[in-house]
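Allow me, if you will, to draw on your knowledge of protein folds for a short while. The matter concerns a single protein, recorded as an amino acid sequence and a row of backbone structure tokens. Kindly check, if you would, that the fold set down in the tokens agrees with what the sequence suggests. You will find the record immediately after this paragraph.
***
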Amino acid sequence: MQHQEILHRCFRCGYCKLPGNYVDLNCPSYAKYRFETFSPGGRMWLLYAWVNKKIEPGKRFQEIMFSCASCGNCVEHCTLPKIKDYLLEAFTAGKEELVNNGTVPPAVRDCLTKAYNHGNMYGLSKKKRGDWANGLNIEPYSDQEYLFYVGDVGSYDPRGQEIAGSVASLLKKEKISFGILGKEELCDGNDAKAMGEGELFKHLAEENIKKFNSLGVSKIITLSPHAFNAMKNDYPFLEGSITIFHYSQILERLVGNFKFKNSLETVKVTFHDPCYLGRHNMEYASVRKTLAAIPGVVPVEMDRCLQNSLCCGGGGGNVFTDILGGGPESPARSRIQEAAETGAQILAVACPVCAVMFEDAVKAGNAENNIEVKEISEIINERLA
């Protein structure tokens, strides 16, 4: 297994499962289950025992490995420089060994099979991939300045489709030159890689890059931070020929051009940092600058924010497999409570995965009267003149 030489170096000191101020729990799987085996240090110990043939990779072992949301909090707070940069890589390598051996939870197996057979994690028809854009008069990509890459959640999940449409409408209002791939779009592969399916990720990446190059794409706007991360950091074949943007970075440039209503009700808004935008790519400023520029919006911060943000629990493929699960102790439910405690009326998100996870948590926790989940382009659209 790759990186197995670092497994024994982990002191299991526990800092990896905490935020920077050490007053709460910040590893989503440990916060949910409260067993040390579900913490990053516990996973290191289990992997060490496994590669040394002390334990077998049974059902519980598999669930522990695949409950990791790949949020990066452990990397952020690990105290050992020689291993911190390889923590997530070690966990991914462990999952890859499980995948290669065929010893994975059924939900993971089914999800990866769907991605391989259909080009998306939902296993739905490619012909329906562009249905989110019906009636919006969005052109297929030809020679526009940007390709708007929507991804699986934006293409197939009803809530993701709403967000894709909202972002696209703002781009159109500001006459941004962009097109979409529609049914020609494929999964970005970020979550397949996080689930240990490196060969599937490579296949998806190669097919995407082949498509981009054939169309002469030079700039891509992604809807999901997951796609932003994969294309920016893990597509080794781009060789700097394509510039990748997350849509929040484009909105930051545009917000000064928007014409807002003259009279707007004041509303408190707190922003949840997506893991693949924040910790994985150090992009914390764009959304905050955009929110601060919207008339009537009063930004407030949660205690766990920026590099200490608590993951929604949807990363690492969990939004598709639901291995991390729900319940009162789920990271999404905890995050909703934390957002409500700021006094904010709106929890703002910039990721369709986060939107899906949090809205499910609001419904499950009967918190509809406490706080509302909205994506940042929706906040802007509601306030435009």
